[in-house]
Amino acid sequence: MAQEISIKGLLQDLKKGLTRTKASGGYDSEVGSIEEKYELSAADVKRMFKHPLLANRKTIPVAKEAFILIDDVTPVPVQETTPTPAVAEVSSPSEEGVIRAETPSHADSAAEVPVNLTSTSTTTSGVDF
Length: 129
Fold this sequence. Notes:
alpha+beta, three-stranded antiparallel beta sheet
């Protein structure tokens, strides 16, 4: 079965810097060629570029950076993180006496703590608790 190659794909290849063949002017082995990418012969590539939408289309050279400039003078602000506050939630009336508590370090798990919610008054040395 013959390989299917789209015109749109070939135009994108030219924009990425691929040349038509390895023998084309401006060929860069790091970027490659359409001949190599699609494993075609130079004659096949020549015939392909006779199509009206591909004729006279040229490789667009990709500019390579000669250096990378690192700004080591401007101070970088340090972002402070604030701890997530603990969340306590009283369960529904059907689960009276149970409080679900979450802590910042275990926010995904909830611990059930039994609590007596009935009010009782105990007097010790005249002070109500």
